Input
Amino acid sequence: MAKIAIIGTGYVGLASAVGFAQLGHDVVGIDIDEIKVQKLTSGKSPIFEKDIEKFLVKSLKKKKITFSTDYKKISKAKFVFLCLPTPQLDDGSADTSYILESSKLLSKHISDSATLVIKSTVPVNTWKAVKQVLNRKDVLIVSNPEFLREGTALEDFFKPDRIVVGCEVEKKAKEVANLYKAKNAKVVFTDNTSAEIIKYASNSFLAIKLSFVNEIAAYAESTDANALEVLHAMGLDKRIGKEFLKPGPGWGGMCFPKDVSALKESAREKNVPIPLLDAALESNLKAHARIVKKIIDALGGSLKDKNVAVWGLAFKANTDDTRFSPAISVVELLIAAGAKVTAFDPVVKHVQLSLK
Ligand SMILES: NC(=O)c1ccc[n+]([C@@H]2O[C@H](COP(=O)([O-])OP(=O)(O)OC[C@H]3O[C@@H](n4cnc5c(N)ncnc54)[C@H](O)[C@@H]3O)[C@@H](O)[C@H]2O)c1
Output
């Protein structure tokens, strides 16, 4: 069993920490948020995620997991995972400052010949910048992007479709892959840079697919066609696949919007623009407005003083994450159009609206 440190205990970090502890590893989770650390230590999950609290309590009882705000507590870990935020900056690129600041701090505390694993979604060549600020010849950097989906985070952790491990040294990559004990997962061993791109390319492909689905659904609805039958029949073609063919109010969450923007910016910097990404972003904004237009049409052309109920506020079902939620955009557009909105979500406790 390995000694593992997880830096950042948010949606990805907590699922990974609890998952690794359940597999029998000794895990310490580090976060700068004191309240979060206190909650986790007392067996309470700060996020809504299926089974996470159950596994958290089990691992706390077995003393397989601890939490702290103190970076010194990582000094015994042989594998240190960075699960820190990489939010979108104003120009669309990804903010890597959390990763780099944390790596600087880790430099003082990480044990000899430990492995630093980047699990956050990071722009191309971030691993080189991490290597530079870490400034520790004995520590290898492994790029191991995370693909879990909120709502099924633990299921995805224990049974991933694939595990991507990028590293200059094959032996180290294998050690990281083995930590997951995922017998049936396909493991892709590659270089660090390819691993970084695989994550952005995967999320961007899915976002483009959803934008196309929403546009085809809107087009089909403008004719006599049945949009759902059109999409179902498309999905029967193996090259297209059945997944991600459901139309909706647009994609959102803390990954797709920022990852599409970051890839777009990164490609532009390299002078290889990807216009499909611009189209997907623009199309997604139209998807929010399209839903509101449907409601306006259904209510006789105006929403002034109309009561509208909204069911669901998170960016998808089975999570409490409202970051970049299309439902919130729809609520804001409804209010702007004069509607009185009553919204309900079984797990979201509060939301921040930006009303003009
Ligand atoms: N949320 C997802 O579904 C998902 C899926 C795959 C990949 N990712 C990627 O994983 C990364 C993390 O995403 P997330 O959704 O878990 O983020 P999050 O915001 O939920 O969690 C980040 C955590 O890091 C903590 N933190 C911030 N600065 C810190 C520091 N200096 N030291 C220690 N802790 C610190 C925060 O307090 C927070 O608890 C991002 O790059 C994201 O793109 C997210």
The chain has two domains: 3-190, 199-344.
